[in-house]
Amino acid sequence: MNYDIIVIGSGPGGYVTAIRAAQLGFKTAIIEKENLGGICLNWGCIPTKALLKSAQVFHYINHAEDYGLNKVEASFEFPNVIQRSRGVAGKMSKGIEFLMKKNKIDVILGTAKVQPGKKVSVTDKDGKATEYSASHIIIATGARSRELPNLPQDGKKVIGYRQALSLPEQPKSMIVVGSGAIGVEFADFYNTMGTKVTVVEFMPNIVPVEDEEISKHLEKSLKKSGIEIMTNASVESVDTSGEGVKANVKTANGNITLEADILLSAVGIAANIENIGLEEVGIQTDKGRVLVNEWYETSVPGYYAIGDIIPTQALAHVASAEGITCVEKIKGMHVEKIDYGNIPGCTYCHPEVASVGLTEKQAKEKGYEIKVGKFPLSASGKATANGNTDGFIKVIFDAKYGEWLGCHMIGEGVTDMVAEAVVARKLETTGHEIIKSIHPHPTVSEAIMEAAAAAYGEVIHI
Ligand SMILES: Cc1cc2nc3c(=O)[nH]c(=O)nc-3n(C[C@H](O)[C@H](O)[C@H](O)COP(=O)(O)OP(=O)(O)OC[C@H]3O[C@@H](n4cnc5c(N)ncnc54)[C@H](O)[C@@H]3O)c2cc1C
Asked: Taking the CB of the first residue and of the last residue of the chain, which one, N or C, has fewer CB atoms within 10 A?
């Protein structure tokens, strides 16, 4: 069976690539060994947000009095909360099935292995292998939870994100190792639902990729909500022989033992590069990722790679953008390269965190003379009406030309606001153009305009 394009893996990298390929007139097939939609729809972006929504609703009901309503005590059955999240994931995966049909993309279920001569062999669940060929093979096999040698996951007491999304019962206590977006989102969910959560982070700050002020603010907010946070600390070993887990944690003041029902390891991801035929074809890898050029071509012509298996930001929107760029280039279109400096990053804990561009430290390190503006959400009318005043907006401009170097936000709803900064930066908008762009009142987005005004000494509401 011969195709123009075969895509391996149906995550936000693979399925989006396949749709764009089909739109461009390529005869396209997609191969998936598990569920359509990949990690993002089934075990990542979507089910985590469903859990966080349940936690937020639970929190709101328990704080009804804050909104002038009668006191209510919300209750829940943990399996129902999990079931809702799984239902949302299942619905989204079904949606991908529909999109594949609509775009006349052949869906091949099974485990794919690339072979020399632009061939792919697919082994189905009964062990039957079928060979396919294509002019272009795009590998988008994604990633899995990274396992550290001293933190082996048994799936029961020491778990990864898949188990954290589908636990049969709520743990009374949980240690979360790693405070990147994934770790912090789970810590927030379980803490809000009543689990005693301790976060252990190796770096000096939680959400370490964020601007330091944002990290510090989030740490304070999460601690206030009841999460225990240990930074500059690392789990050296775990003991699962007793009832729960005992973690031996190295801290600046010596080693301590933490005990909990469950330990969630959220220390990053490992790309799925094994047993997919890379060595047989001669496709080069480095540090566990597939090497590609700016058009996602691997070291072997006709084979491409996108998404979590290449060394770019491991985010769903990055995977999708890479896939679109890759097939448009194959089509011979005039394509713009992806600007990896303008990728938004979001963490959906409460308060939410969203950012794009340089942090203050990075801007200084790059030698920019900068103007920094900040606006607290406590001064925002909409945030006050919403009862969510925790957080602030921080913007960084180049003092010389007004270029918007970075935007860092913490607060309710900021993940939906960061796109303004992405678009403005893409259009090379200056600080004054932001100040002169009239934002609707009352919205939390006004805080971005006010933060820009603060950078130029023109802020109105503080
Ligand atoms: C808990 C969690 C929360 C996250 N939240 C967010 C978020 O809020 N926002 C965000 O942008 N990103 C988030 N991410 C990251 C995001 O999920 C990934 O960046 C994204 O899924 C990567 O897409 P991909 O297409 O490269 O790979 P994946 O989504 O991993 O898909 C790869 C697919 O390939 C299939 N596959 C693998 N090997 C084979 C084979 N040999 N044959 C056939 N099929 C194969 C797999 O079964 C899988 O379906 C989150 C991740 C996790 C774990």
From this structure: C
Share of the chain above pLDDT 70, in %: 100
| Same-domain status, 136 and 64 | yes
Residue 402 is predicted with a pLDDT of 95
Given a cut of 90, whether residue 52 has pLDDT beyond it is: yes
**Residues annotated as part of the active site:** 441
Q: Whose CA is nearest to atom 3 of ligand 1?
A: 44
User: pTM for the whole thing?
Assistant: 0.98
42, 100, 141, 347: residue to mutate for ligand 1 pocket, most atoms within 8 A of CB: 141
Q: Please indicate, yes or no, whether residues 257 and 401 belong to a single structural domain of this protein.
A: no
Q: Is the pLDDT of residue 6 over 90?
A: yes
CATH number at residue 235: 3.50.50.60
Q: Which pLDDT belongs to residue 221? A: 98
Q: Are 263 and 247 in contact (CB under 8 A)?
A: yes
The residue whose CA is least distant from atom 34 of ligand 1 is: 9
Say yes or no: 216 and 94 in one domain: no
d(Cα 309, Cα 44) in Å, to the nearest integer? 16
Classify residue 195 as exposed, middle or buried by CB count within 10 Å of its CB (0-12, 13-18, 19+): buried
Which residues define the annotated binding site for NAD(+)? 178-185, 201, 268
**Measuring from atom 26 of ligand 1, which residue has the nearest CA?**
307
Where does a domain end: 295, 316, 340? 340
Nearest by Cα to 354 from 449, 419, 269: 419
Our count of domains for the chain comes to 3
| Cα 112 to averaged position of ligand 1 atoms, centre (Å) | 16
Read off the pLDDT of each residue in 377-405 and give the average, rounded to a whole number.
98
Give the span between the Cα atoms of 289 and 282, in whole angstroms. 14
